[in-house]
Amino acid sequence: MQESPHEWTVRASVEADWRAYRDLRLEMLADTPMAFLETVDDARRHSEEHWRRRAANASPTGRLFAAVAPDGSWLGSMGGFQAVGAPDPHLVGVYVTPEFRGRATGLTDALLDAVIDWARGRGERLLLDVHEDNAPAIRYYERRGFAFTGRTQPYPLDRSANEREMALPLG
């Protein structure tokens, strides 16, 4: 757990966080729908068990981190995931509430640092896919050392748009 002078901590989620995770997930899907592979309507239909399982961090192939306020609410989250047999892990589910986004609070960097620490030793690079029109995210990733790999793929929720792969060396 990373302590912060800004009255939040970054830590791995636990099953008891399921409500806070659900609330933040619904917020993120409503706020920045192009950044995720799920719609807010689909997410609203998930069962409590789904949210508990996702928050529990029980899978050996992934880890979900949250920036948590003193009241237990989530201010942001990022996850790491590595498909079985994949050579490199991926950064997924990146979201910071508008109150903390783009400000010099250190919250976004602390979340990304937690995922990078988790990813070390799991591959040579940390990969991510970013929507081609998400300029603020691209600027942030480039500032943190990610570079485009040249790989693109159609964005699953709108095949007329693309996601662009970026990579950060982990060595």
Structure description:
- It is a single chain.
- With 171 residues, this protein is α+β, with helices and mostly antiparallel strands.
- It has a domain at 9-123: Aminopeptidase (3-Layer(aba) Sandwich), CATH 3.40.630.30.
- Helices cover 29% and strands 32% of the residues.
- It has 5 helices and 7 strands.
- The strands form 2 sheets. It has a 4-stranded antiparallel sheet, with helices on both faces. The chain has a 3-stranded antiparallel sheet with strand order 5-7-6, with helices on one face.
- Strand 6 and strand 7 form a beta hairpin.
- The longest helix has 14 residues, at 18-31.
- The relative contact order is 0.16.
- The mean pLDDT is 93.
- Residues 8-171 form the N-acetyltransferase domain.
- Keywords: Acyltransferase, Transferase.
- Pfam families: Acetyltransf_1.
Topology (SSEs and partners):
Layout (H helix, E strand, L loop, with lengths): L8 E4 L5 H14 L8 H5 L3 H9 L5 E7 L5 E8 L8 E7 L10 H13 L5 E7 L3 H9 L3 E9 L2 E12 L2
Antiparallel strand pairs: 1-2, 2-3, 3-4, 5-7, 6-7
Which keywords apply here?
171 residues; Bact_Acetyltransf; 32% strand; alpha+beta; single chain; acyltransferase; three-stranded antiparallel beta sheet; 5 helices; Aminopeptidase
CATH homologous superfamily classification of the domain at 9-123? Gcn5-related N-acetyltransferase (GNAT)
Number of strands: 7
Largest sheet: 4 strands, antiparallel
Q: Which regions contain 5 or more consecutive residues with pLDDT less than 50?
A: none
| Text of the CATH class of the domain at 9-123 | Alpha Beta
Query: Architecture of the domain at 9-123 in CATH?
Result: 3-Layer(aba) Sandwich
